[in-house]
Amino acid sequence: MEVALRVEHISFQYANEKTYALQNVSFQVYKGEWVTIVGHNGSGKSTLAKLLIGLLPPKSGTIHVCGIPLNEETVWDVREKLGIVFQNPDNQFVGTTVQDDVAFGLENRGVQKNEMVKRINEALKKVGMENFVNDEPHRLSGGQKQRVAIASAIALEPNIIILDEATSMLDPSGKKEVLQVIQSLRRERDMTVISITHDLNEVAKADRVIVMNKGKIALEGTPKHIFAHGSKLEEMGLDLPFSLQLSQRLKENHIPITIDHLTIEGLVSELWTLYSAMSNIATK
Amino acid sequence: MNSMIIGKYVPGNSLIHRLDPRTKLLLMFIYVFIVFLANNEWTYGVLTSFTCVLLFLSRIPPSFMIKGLKPVLWVIVFTFLLHVLLTKEGDVVFQWLGIEVYDKAIQQGAFISLRFLLLIVVTTLVTLTTTPIEVTDGMESLLSPLKKWGIPVHELALMMSISLRFIPTLMEETEKIMKAQMARGVDFSSGPLSERMKAMTALLVPLFISAFKRAEELAVAMEVRGYRGGNGRTKWRELTWRRIDTAFMLLLGLLAVLLWLLRS
Hints:
- The complex is a heterodimer of chains A (284) and B (264).
- With 284 residues, chain A is of the alpha/beta class.
- Chain A folds into two domains: 3-238, Rossmann fold; 241-284, no CATH class.
- Helix content of chain A is 40%, strand content 21%.
- Chain A is built from ten helices and ten strands.
- In chain A, helix 3 packs parallel to helix 5 (142-154), helix 4 packs across helix 5 and helix 5 (142-154) packs parallel to helix 6.
- Chain B is mostly helical and 264 residues long.
- Chain B folds into two domains: 2-130 and 240-262, no CATH class; 154-224, no CATH class.
- Chain B is flat.
- The interface between A and B is medium-sized, with 37 and 29 residues.
- Chain B: GO terms for molecular function: transmembrane transporter activity.
- Chain B: The chain crosses the membrane at residues 21-38, 68-86, 106-128, 244-262.
- Chain B: Forms a stable energy-coupling factor (ECF) transporter complex composed of 2 membrane-embedded substrate-binding proteins (S component), 2 ATP-binding proteins (A component) and 2 transmembrane proteins (T component).
């Protein structure tokens, strides 16, 4: 499989701080994969994000994005491969209207006007914001603003899209909107997604999860594999998803739940079929 | 609070609305100069009718115009009175409580106030029919020759458009901080002036801190989307100079010539 991002032995230390923010971190992300990097505050995940987009130089180690080594000379080439959605919906909205904001990145790349029109329309359609082209940011909800931010990123046709805590300032419905858009993008475009979050609820949909703790990779694997280490995750300051906690409690109370559910939907459907299954047994 | 700064624009699709913002800015600029050419009944008549035609073409409801003029009305009245009382030329028209009012004084007062009124009407008209972002684009385009002398025209225009974009955001934030501080017992609305000024620090300090934070995050977001200054950038908002714009400029030229010929 083609490697989209290769991080090798990177370490980083902030000035005036004794401990390393990142210590010998290595991992790979393959093309078309959705990898979630999760960790509580101070685990080094935000530092990692800053290193990936070339805002901070690693103290040691190398980062390759689509085969290009990241350094001072290549930083602009590397950024062309990346689309990033940040945490605060307001502070990444540059344009005065939705279309101006999507156009901003295209203007920077010197894209011609007719090509711009095409790409802006396409990108806004992808995120379901095509009816808001002339709207000003203060008329949009947080989720809508983040969808515009995604549109701005994909209009530039990046190879990798990075979500840096992109849903953490949104209400539940806003979160859902954004994650749905990302999922449909992945289906249609085979986009590589790296999401960085402190919320284990967002982990379920990823192909692979990397858990960061104290600047190191603590765990790596599929969501199921990760959640098998339930208590360990809690020790690292992460809250287990509600559905998982509930499944465990139910089991402790001798309700015959088959698996630890990662999604509410899964748990609900097992619970309501479980009752009829049990009553079936009783009547027999 | 929002309406104070951005709400000035009255959406519409009139001839004046559709003019290129550069035309409107030039119109405003040139008008300010040619207003001073007028010095008799004829020239003021021509200027006033020109302005009335503009007003009519803009389809701006007169009530908007009047609302916009209210704050300056007193200045205009004051100017008129000052001229009437202080100019001592021509014949005395009437006397009242020992104050002599001359006919030339009335004429002079009327002219000066009319000039003032016309200036304000035209500048208000331009702001009412042009969105702030159009004004920014127009300014950038008109000032672009200054780039040769190292004036960062593109950067200034970008700064202006970002400021416009953040006005509502910061307004919202101001309101939020105010409420948060009021909940903590800060009194913004009563007490002596010095107390109220002191209370403002509780508003301004958090507002500034957050604005700086926003600025930093915005800069990162811009850089990541490939912003490297104005070189090699294309423009999404293109201004198109149409025949009607040329016609308007010619009309303005004609007006200037007419005023020059008619002035005494």
